[in-house]
């Protein structure tokens, strides 16, 4: 199987400005049906506006052609480690586009959006149950946004308890870059701890940094090596023992659905990536949702507003607003939903309530799968990772010889082909019709190729991918140049990234 | 149903290849006491059942496909040309990841580059990115960028009281660990001159919004000079639709321009997903948070696009990064790009003028009603403030129940001195008859509710 980019895309697609011709337009607008008003003074008005002018067919062809220059899950295998590129079910797209959801304004009276609030409330409840937390906010828009939310909650908790000296966040050296970056944003200090030879947090190193200045630990479990922390109970005990909190980076939660609940394992706070674990599309990098779950003790600090359930009776509902609606929702007159700020909230982390359109997709996914389906997700994700590892472990070194969870890290090191690097292998995979794995991450594994198959890929796909890696290994020994020069069949060859950074061209600058 | 393709035979073969007996054996590292917990969730549903359930749930809402709405306040109903949904529904865009492998991500990269180009043109700035979640978070990131431009030594952020209240709240949330002095928005009557008087050597930035939260076009002429005199930055929050008509903030000397991109190409969706516009000057690009697409060439000299200037970002700088952002709000930015390109140079101007004229017609009709007064003496764009003869909530309840109209935003929610003040929004989707109906309904409301 080879990528057919070469066939589809003989030439580059012009930039939209190059397709522009004065006088064209790709949409129509209604005629003005009211008397015109006087415009503001000329000094307040713009004179020029350099937007492209194209007809509708040109516009459509432009974007269809651009789309054909992309790789995507719906085209082929996308084994990016820690990104969980699973199938995005089409029913979710239809659900999010239901006019009853899509055409609602965030400032409508709550009594006119009870369907939205019911969906959000039930999603909060289901996410709570899946990960074992006391409360969940749906407001954060991405994993990194959830991290900031979680760390600010931890900070607020300690401040509220009169412990302002707790300013240090412990981060393992295998962590995603967002963990230390988030810590910096929250005005806290990063303390890095090493991993031991089995890929766990080094317990001795951890013990040595515990103390009354610790705000908490940020732990990805399973970690970015795809390994479940073997001393999890001890790690959590050490942090709790010194008065700190444990933050779970939920990037790898796809390994744990129905397998373990982080809240029961002792995590105090965790973000969920709905765009990874719960199948909402990545959209080329966004939008996502980084919902955050917390323990009972941290619930009062959640951002808001949150959706809360109020009980109504014959006298109306008991909400603080005293709305007296008694109208109910979903055929039940005894309840209604409201928006409320938690008691000691850290505040809002975005305008309105969250990426609602994404929430609808995740809700549909969870309701379709239910408990058995979710457990099957994690079981098959982990089965796929371990199976693929068994198919390639004679080709490349694997970072750790343990049972992996949903992903594993191979090293792009080929004995006898010293000048072949992970990057070459990654780029050559493109010619074989696969998206490369994540490479050069985690930083602690040289020449890392981080592979996450996800549960929605078949054995045939994994076999074909393993066969491609085997063929590439052989090429590396006989004809390494073909790797160095790869990809050969993509719309463009390797791009000059140094030039892009040294002489930045960040917008269209005319011909 | 988990969308998994595994047959029993597949599972058996795969387990044998791994060398374990059963799937459960892959989870022995998970503490036994907590392994395989029960999940108390509703029973699984078929596709038909979930669609039926969601259809019913969505119908519990009152949707604006069936009612005329005059709500704006940061989330705007504009007509989105059908081509937009066709483009963003292409799997090649919406099921792609962040473009880490540029050779097979040129579609996303070029579309982001084009978005950056169009936003620069619109705002009058030199650099733009597509990374931010919404107008509120891009405003907060602008404040943080200004702190970084000031090398962390300048601690004062001046906020106009007429920046969207939720954006101001998010600035405060983001800044809670940064020991900042956030001033200016305590007095809702503060003028631009009053805000400029707060500028000092400790100021990182002054943030104003135009059109502001009450719809007024602020006169920004000369403000940048005052801000720059103390070496602080001017941050302008704006509505991209207004820039079809109005002078771009870059012309007034703005250093950072941010705003909510939802109005172009993205639907209301009950508040998200939206798009944070973020644009700045080239000289400060290395302090900007967010992913940037840049033009370059491949080894054969062919033009191509890559993510560039990554040394600013979290995955390289880790704790020294200026932001933790790694989103690339690409799909929402794509929707905005398609809408902007569909409108083009003349279409955006016409759209902006439609909003302007219709809003002014509405203001003239409502201002002529007994008991109502259009408040404010500055020019406005598509929103304006009306003093009502009764609490806004009561008027809105009446409008909805008796007339099927969703009234404007209750400004008393955020500004206690503006009790009984409604923020009315009129865009191109509102026709004259609907404005006339609103005027008639408000006149009735004055009699029914106020008495």
Unreliable stretches covering 5 or more consecutive residues of chain B: none
Can you name the CATH architecture of the domain at 372-498 in chain A? Alpha-Beta Complex
State the largest interface: A-B, 205 and 207 residues
DSSP strand count of chain A: 13
Any overview of this molecule?
The complex is a heterodimer of chains A (511) and B (451). Chain A is of the alpha/beta class. Among the domains of chain A are: 1-69, no CATH class; 372-498, Aspartate Aminotransferase, domain 1. Chain A is built from 15 helices and 13 strands. Chain A has helices at 5-8, 56-67, 90-96, 99-102, 114-131, 143-160, 178-185, 203-209, 232-241, 262-265, 356-392, 422-431, 459-478, 480-484, 497-502; strands at 135-137, 168-172, 189-193, 214-220, 245-250, 269-272, 292-294, 306-313, 316-317, 335-340, 408-411, 438-439, 448-451. Chain A has a seven-stranded mixed β-sheet, with helices on both faces. In chain A, strands 9-8-10 form a three-stranded antiparallel β-sheet. In chain A, strands 11-13-12 form a three-stranded antiparallel β-sheet, covered by helices on one side. In chain A, strand 8 and strand 9 (316-317) form a beta hairpin. In chain A, helix 3 (90-96) runs antiparallel to helix 11. Chain A starts with a helix and ends in a 9-residue tail after the last helix. In chain B, 62% of the residues are buried. Chain B is of the alpha/beta class and 451 residues long. Chain B is built from 13 helices and 15 strands. Chain B has helices at 8-18, 47-59, 82-88, 91-94, 106-123, 135-149, 165-174, 192-196, 223-229, 314-317, 330-367, 392-403, 432-448, and strands at residues 68-69, 127-132, 156-159, 181-183, 203-209, 233-238, 256-260, 276-280, 292-297, 303-308, 373-375, 383-387, 405-406, 409-410, 421-425. In chain B, helix 3 (82-88) packs antiparallel against helix 11, helix 11 (330-367) packs across helix 13 and helix 12 (392-403) crosses helix 13. In chain B, the strands form four sheets. In chain B, strands 2-8-7-6-5-3-4 form a seven-stranded mixed β-sheet, sandwiched between helices. In chain B, strands 11-12-15-14 form a four-stranded antiparallel β-sheet, with helices on one face. Chain B has two domains: 68-77 and 345-448, Alpha-Beta Complex (Aspartate Aminotransferase, domain 1), CATH 3.90.1150; 82-339, Aspartate Aminotransferase, domain 2 (3-Layer(aba) Sandwich), CATH 3.40.640.10. The chains are: A alpha/beta (511), B alpha/beta (451). The interface between A and B is large, with 205 and 207 residues.
């Amino acid at each position: 199987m080879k990528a057919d980019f070469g066939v589809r895309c003989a030439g580059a697609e012009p930039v939209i400005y190059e397709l522009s011709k004065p006088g064209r337009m790709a949409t129509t607008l209604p005629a003005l049906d009211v008397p015109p008003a006087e415009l503001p003074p000329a000094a307040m008005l713009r004179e020029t506006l350099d937007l492209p002018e194209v007809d509708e067919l040109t516009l459509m062809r432009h974007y269809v052609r651009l789309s054909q220059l992309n790789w995507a899950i719906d085209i082929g295998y996308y084994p990016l480690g820690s990104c969980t590129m699973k199938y995005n079910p089409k029913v979710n797209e239809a659900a999010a586009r239901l006019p009853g959801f899509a055409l609602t304004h965030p400032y409508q009276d709550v009594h006119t959006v009870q369907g939205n609030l019911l969906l959000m409330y039930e999603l909060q409840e289901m996410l709570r149950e899946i990960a074992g937390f006391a409360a969940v906010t749906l407001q954060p828009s991405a994993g990194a946004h959830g991290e900031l939310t979680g760390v600010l909650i931890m900070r607020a908790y300690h401040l509220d308890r009169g412990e302002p000296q707790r300013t240090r966040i412990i981060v393992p050296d295998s962590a995603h870059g967002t963990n230390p970056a988030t810590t910096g944003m929250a005005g806290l200090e990063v303390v890095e701890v090493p991993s031991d030879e089995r890929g766990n947090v080094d317990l001795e190193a951890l013990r040595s940094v515990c103390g009354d200045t610790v705000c908490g630990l940020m732990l990805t479990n399973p970690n970015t090596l795809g390994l479940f922390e073997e001393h999890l109970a001890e790690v959590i005990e050490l942090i709790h023992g010194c008065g700190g909190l444990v933050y779970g980076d939920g990037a790898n939660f796809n390994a744990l659905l129905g397998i373990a609940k982080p809240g029961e394992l002792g995590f105090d706070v965790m973000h969920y990536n709905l765009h990874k674990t719960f199948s909402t599309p990545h959209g080329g990098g966004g939008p996502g949702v980084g919902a955050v779950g917390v323990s009972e003790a941290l619930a009062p600090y959640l951002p808001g507003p949150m959706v809360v359930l109020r009980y109504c009776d014959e006298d109306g509902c008991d909400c603080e607003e005293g709305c007296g609606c008694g109208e109910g929702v979903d055929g039940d007159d005894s309840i209604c939903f409201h928006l409320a700020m938690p008691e000691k909230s850290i505040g809002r982390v975005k305008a309105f309530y969250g990426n609602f359109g994404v929430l609808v997709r995740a809700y549909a996914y969870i309701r379709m799968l239910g408990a058995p389906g979710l457990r099957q997700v994690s079981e098959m994700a982990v089965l796929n990772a371990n199976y693929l590892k068994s198919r390639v472990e004679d080709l490349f070194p694997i970072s750790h010889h343990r049972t992996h969870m949903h992903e594993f890290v191979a090293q792009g090191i080929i004995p006898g082909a010293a000048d072949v690097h992970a990057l070459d292998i990654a780029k050559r995979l493109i010619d074989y019709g696969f998206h490369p794995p994540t490479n050069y991450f985690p930083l602690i594994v040289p020449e890392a190729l981080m592979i996450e198959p996800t549960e929605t890929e078949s054995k045939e796909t994994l076999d074909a991918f393993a066969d491609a890696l085997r063929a590439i290994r052989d090429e590396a020994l006989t004809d390494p140049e073909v790797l160095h020069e790869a990809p050969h069949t993509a719309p463009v060859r390797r791009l000059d990234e140094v030039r892009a950074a040294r002489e930045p061209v960040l917008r269209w600058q005319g011909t | 149903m988990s969308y998994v393709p595994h047959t029993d035979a597949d599972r058996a073969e795969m387990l044998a290849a791994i060398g374990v007996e059963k799937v459960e054996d892959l989870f022995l590292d998970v503490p036994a006491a907590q392994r395989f917990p029960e999940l108390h969730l509703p029973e699984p549903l078929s596709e038909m059942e979930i669609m039926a359930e969601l259809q019913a749930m969505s119908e519990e809402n009152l949707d604006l496909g069936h009612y005329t709405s005059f709500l704006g306040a940061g989330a705007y109903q504009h007509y989105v040309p059908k081509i937009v949904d066709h483009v963003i529904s292409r799997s090649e865009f919406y099921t792609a990841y962040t473009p880490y492998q540029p050779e097979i991500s040129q579609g996303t990269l070029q579309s982001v580059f084009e978005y950056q180009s169009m936003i620069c043109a619109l705002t009058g700035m030199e650099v733009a990115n597509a990374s931010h979640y919404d107008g509120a978070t891009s405003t907060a990131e602008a404040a943080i960028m200004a702190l970084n431009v000031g090398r962390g030594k300048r601690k004062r952020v001046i906020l106009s009281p007429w920046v969207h209240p939720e954006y101001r709240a998010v600035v405060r949330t983001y800044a809670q660990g940064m020991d900042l002095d956030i001033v200016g928005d305590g007095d809702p009557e503060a003028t631009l001159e009053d805000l400029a008087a707060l500028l000092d050597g400790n100021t990182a930035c002054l943030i104003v919004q135009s059109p502001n939260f009450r719809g007024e076009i602020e006169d920004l002429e000369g403000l940048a000079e005052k801000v720059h005199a103390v070496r602080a930055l001017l941050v302008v929050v704006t509505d991209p639709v207004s820039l079809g008509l109005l002078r771009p903030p870059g012309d007034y000397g703005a250093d950072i321009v941010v705003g909510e991109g939802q109005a172009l190409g993205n639907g209301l969706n009950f508040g998200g997903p939206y798009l944070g516009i973020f644009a700045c000057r080239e000289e400060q690009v290395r302090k900007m948070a967010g992913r940037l697409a840049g033009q370059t060439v491949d080894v054969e000299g062919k033009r191509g696009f890559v993510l560039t200037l990554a040394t600013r970002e979290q995955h390289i700088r880790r704790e020294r990064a200026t932001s933790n952002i790694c989103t690339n709000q690409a799909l929402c930015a794509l929707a905005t790009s398609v809408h902007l390109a569909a409108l083009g140079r003349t279409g955006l101007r016409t759209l902006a003028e439609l909003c302007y004229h219709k809003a002014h017609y509405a203001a003239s009709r409502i201002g002529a009603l007994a008991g109502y007064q259009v408040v404010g003496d500055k020019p406005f764009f598509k929103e304006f403030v009306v003093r009502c003869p009764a609490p806004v909530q009561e008027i809105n309840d009446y409008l909805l129940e008796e007339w099927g109209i969703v009234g404007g935003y209750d400004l008393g929610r955020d500004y206690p001195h503006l009790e009984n003040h409604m923020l009315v929004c009129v865009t191109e989707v509102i026709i004259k008859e609907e404005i006339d109906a609103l005027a008639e309904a408000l006149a009735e409301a004055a009699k029914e509710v106020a008495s």
